[in-house]
Amino acid sequence: MKFLPAWLLAGYRGRWSQQKSDLDCMTKVIKKFVWDTSAIVNIKEPNDSGYSPGYSLIKDLSDGWIPGPYRNIFPSLAIFEVSATVSRMHRDGKRILREFYLIDENSVLFDVNQELITKSYELLAKTGFDQLRGADLVFACIAAIEDAYLVTLDKAFGKHLAGKLRIVDLNESLHTANYRRMFGL
Question: How many whole angstroms from its chain centre is CA 9?
Answer without folding.
Answer: 32
